[in-house]
C-alpha cells in the first residue's frame, strides 16, 4: 500500500474511532484503572479502538499496535504496521475536558510515514502523509521563534505517584530556561500543537509509548520541525526520551533534557 493510500486509511480510521468516542463523550461511563489509580480507562476506549481496528483490518493486513485490549504493544522491527491510540488523553476525556485525540499512524520498519490525529471535541483534524501537515485542510508549519526564552514548551511523560521526580525536575528546568510551560494531559495533542506552531517544543526524558507519540512525531516532521532523542539523534519509537521542536533552538532543548536525565541517574 502506497503512502497516499495509507494516509487516507489512517484518516478514515481515526475519524471513525473519534466519532465513536465523541458519541460517548460527557456521558455516564464506568471508569476502571490499569497500571495505577490515575491510569484510567473506560468502555469508550475499547469501543473506539474496535472501530479503528475494524477499518484498518478491512483494507490492510499489516499488524495493529495499540493501547487497549489484546492488540500488541510493541512495534515490529521491520515491515509495515499501524499504531493506534483510540483516546489519547483519557483522563481529560473522562473529566469532560475537550483536549483528547484519536490518533492513527502508519509505519514502515518503525519509521512513521502517515498520521492522522483527530480532536472531535474541538473540531480539529491534523493529517500528514508525504506532502506536509494539514490542520482542517490547511497547510501548517512549526513556529518560527528562535529564542528559547520565548518558547512555550509542553512537558510530557507524566507517571504514577512516586515516579515523578524527573518530571518535576524537567518542569523546573523549562520554567527557568524557557518562556513558558504547558501541560495538556494528552501527548498527541501537545505534539500536534507543536506541528501547527501553537507550541514551540515538547519534551520528555521518558521513553513514550508508540501510541502516544508516533503520529505526533510524523506531524511535526512533515510540518518542518525536528524530533530527536536525548542524544540529539533522530527519534525512533525505541528511543530514550523525546525532544520535539521547531528546530530553531533544538540543541538548547536537548541540553536541558539531557541535563535533567543525567541528574535523575545520580
Q: What would your notes on this structure say?
A:
With 266 residues, the protein is α+β, with helices and mostly antiparallel strands. 36% of the residues lie in helices and 24% in strands. It has seven helices and 14 strands. The chain has helices at 3-24, 43-59, 90-94, 165-177, 187-195, 210-222, 250-265, and strands at 31-33, 40-42, 64-66, 80-88, 101-108, 111-119, 124-128, 133-135, 138-140, 152-155, 180-182, 201-204, 226-228, 242-245. The protein has a seven-stranded mixed β-sheet. A five-stranded mixed β-sheet has the order 11-10-12-14-13, with helices on both faces. Strand 7 and strand 8 form a beta hairpin. The longest helix has 22 residues, at 3-24. It is globular, with a radius of gyration of 17 Å. The protein starts with a helix and ends with a helix.
Gist of the model:
The chain is 36% helix and 24% strand. With 266 residues, the protein is an alpha+beta fold.
Write a concise keyword list for the protein shown above.
36% helix, D-Maltodextrin-Binding Protein, domain 2, globular, 2 domains, alpha+beta, 266 residues, seven-stranded mixed β-sheet, 7 helices, Fructose-1,6-Bisphosphatase, Chain A, domain 1
Instruction: Supply the CATH superfamily name of the largest domain.
Output: Fructose-1,6-Bisphosphatase, subunit A, domain 1
- List the strand order in the largest sheet: 3-4-5-6-7-8-9
Write down the overall mean pLDDT: 93
Tell me the number of strands: 14
Estimated helix fraction? 25-40%
Poorly predicted spans:
none
Biggest β-sheet strands, sense, barrel: 7 strands, mixed
Give the helix tally.
Answer: 7
Category by helix and strand content: alpha+beta
CATH fold description of the largest domain: Fructose-1,6-Bisphosphatase, Chain A, domain 1
Which CATH C-level class of the largest domain is it?
Answer: Alpha Beta
| Distance N to C terminus | 47 Å
Number of domains: 2
Shape: globular
Going by CATH, the architecture of the largest domain would be 2-Layer Sandwich
Assembly form of the protein: single chain
Give me the strand/helix succession. HEEHEEHEEEEEEHEHEHEEH
Residue fraction in strands: 15-25%
Q: What Rg is obtained from the alpha carbons, in whole angstroms?
A: 17 Å
Amino acid at each position: 500500500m502506497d503512502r497516499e493510500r495509507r494516509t487516507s486509511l489512517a484518516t478514515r480510521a481515526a475519524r471513525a474511532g473519534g466519532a465513536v468516542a465523541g458519541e460517548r463523550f460527557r456521558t455516564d461511563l464506568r471508569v476502571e484503572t490499569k497500571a495505577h489509580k490515575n491510569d484510567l480507562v473506560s468502555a469508550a476506549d475499547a469501543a473506539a479502538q474496535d472501530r479503528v481496528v475494524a477499518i484498518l483490518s478491512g483494507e490492510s493486513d499489516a499488524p495493529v499496535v495499540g493501547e487497549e485490549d489484546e492488540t500488541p504493544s510493541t512495534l515490529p522491527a521491520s515491515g509495515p504496521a499501524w499504531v493506534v491510540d483510540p483516546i489519547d488523553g483519557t483522563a481529560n476525556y473522562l473529566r469532560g475536558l475537550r483536549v483528547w485525540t484519536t490518533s492513527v499512524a502508519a509505519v514502515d520498519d518503525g519509521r512513521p510515514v502517515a498520521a492522522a490525529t483527530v480532536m472531535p471535541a474541538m473540531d480539529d483534524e491534523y493529517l500528514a502523509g508525504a506532502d506536509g501537515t494539514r490542520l482542517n485542510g490547511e497547510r501548517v508549519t512549526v513556529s518560527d521563534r528562535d529564542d528559547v526564552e520565548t518558547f512555550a514548551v509542553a512537558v510530557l511523560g507524566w507517571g504514577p505517584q512516586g515516579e515523578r521526580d524527573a518530571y518535576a525536575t524537567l518542569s523546573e528546568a523549562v520554567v527557568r530556561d524557557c518562556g513558558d510551560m504547558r501541560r495538556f494531559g494528552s501527548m498527541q495533542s501537545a505534539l500536534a500543537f507543536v506541528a501547527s506552531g501553537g507550541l514551540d517544543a515538547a519534551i520528555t526524558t521518558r521513553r513514550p509509548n508508540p501510541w502516544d507519540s508516533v503520529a505526533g512525531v510524523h506531524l511535526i516532521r512533515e510540518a518542518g520541525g525536528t524530533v530527536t532523542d536525548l542524544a540529539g539523534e533522530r527519534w525512533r519509537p525505541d528511543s530514550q526520551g523525546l525532544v520535539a521542536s521547531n528546530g530553531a533552538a533544538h540543541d538548547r532543548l536537548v541540553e536541558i533534557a539531557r541535563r535533567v536525565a543525567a541528574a535523575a541517574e545520580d
